Amino acid sequence: MKNRILTFIASGLLFLAVGFVSETRAADDDKSFEFGGSIRGRYEYINWLNDAAGEKKDDLGRLRYRLRLDGKAKINPHSRAYFRLVSGTDSRSGNVTLGGPVDFGTDALSIRYAALTISPWAEGKLPSGKGQWSFDFGRVKNPYKWKGHGKDMMMWDGDLALAGAGTQFSHKLGDSGKFFITTGYYAIDENSKSESPDPYLAPVQGGILFGGGKTTAGVRGSYYYMAELDANFISRGVNGKNTDGSDGSTVSGGNIEDGLTGDSEGGKLAVVEAQAFVSTGLGSVPLTLSGGYSDNTSAKASVMYDGVGKNSVAYNFGIEAGTKKKALLGGLGWYHIEANAFPSQFIDSDLLDGYTNREGLFFFLAKTVMKNTDLGLQFFRSDAIASGDGFSDSTRNSKRNRLQIDMLYKF
Asked: Which domain holds residue 381?
């Protein structure tokens, strides 16, 4: 499987080289560079309704900030580069809590994206003018999430960047439709100092977007295949730590040790997912309905813990209405993510604290209060889906309310 994927990528890159030869070399003055970013201030309040023993835990209030520095460069008609630097070192969050490090210690700045986008034809457009095709390489933005079609938070954290290479292809269908397909190969871990093969992700996603006037709709299907997974990967999904007790790249937990792949030593993982949305207008008010379902087909009932089944399913549905620039944008959603539905280190870190085996309600409001300045409010209510032996990591502090109030400034 791995060799076939690498062959696919090499063939694609060779095709790009052929495409470059057929085009006129860009002039030096064709180069351009854009720089921007944002800084966000946040007040967060967490009200825990119980701890692992079912007792009340003290509430938490804290002030946080997040800094993003974005760069985008057009190198020539075939090549573009982009990067993002963020505050903090967590793989799923750029939030930094005021007061840490102690005694006014300095905060870290990390590379989130650093990637090159190349295309066989100028500006990524097909010769017919009816579609686009491009390849990405490096630390790339996650291309497997909706943008602007409801809150797509069930499978992937919005800040998580993939490491590897991928390709994105789209083509128009008549006057009002578009077909797209995205695939790639991404390295989860690099085991150069051991005899173990490298864990990797090889997803494929396809879908259709269509509509006209005030109404648009779309549906997609995804297949997430992960292989050569090792015991460290499984352990990080269980409690966020490697088998030797060292920390992973983020706080996570909830997977069952011998349930995610059926083997505590690793193995393969195959998740199928579908998402759909429809956006329309109620008078002058935009309205979006969205929902999705997924199943980890590799999950197995636990042998280590009696009575613990596959716990392989996740689903979500939501509604949002309005616009933050003209009036007010608001929405709510419900998310249900069972213990082995997806590796816990990849799901959204705010929605359910970055844990599986949880479900809950999400409510948000957003308003542009002045140019490049947004005020936002998010409220999360969650609890564990299952409890008992095997679920101790995900049930701890699971029943809670979480409120976030943000001021976001873009520059």
From this structure: 2-410
What is the number of domains present in the chain? 1
Read off the amino acid at residue 15: F
Q: Report whether 218 contacts 210 (CB < 8 A).
A: yes
CA angle 303, 52, 344 (to 5 degrees): 55
Average pLDDT on 183-202 reads 88
- E strand or H helix at 225, and its extent? strand 215-229
Contact 47, 55 (CB under 8 A): no
Collapsing DSSP to helix, strand or coil, 233 comes out as: helix
**Cα–Cα dist 151/276, whole Å:** 11
3-state class (DSSP) for residue 16:
helix
Cβ contacts of 142 within 8 Å, gap of 6 or more = 156, 158, 160, 161, 162
| CA-atom Rg of the chain in angstroms | 22
Whether pTM > 0.85 for this model: the answer is: yes
Q: Which residues contact 365 (CB under 8 A, 6 or more apart)?
A: 328, 329, 330, 376, 377
Say if CB 311 and CB 340 are below 8 A apart: yes
CA atoms lying within 13 Å on the CB side of residue 281? 9
Interval 161-189: pLDDT, tens: 999 999 999 999 988 999 999 999 999 99
The pair of three-digit structure tokens given for residue 81, joined into one six-digit string:
């580069």
Per-residue tokens: 97: 């809590």
The CATH number assigned to the domain holding 61 equals 2.40.160.10
With contact defined as beta carbons under 8 Å apart, do 344 and 381 qualify?
no
Is there a contact between 259 and 271 (Cβ–Cβ < 8 Å)?
Answer: no
**Cβ–Cβ < 8 Å for 157, 170:** no
215: its two tokens: 């109404």
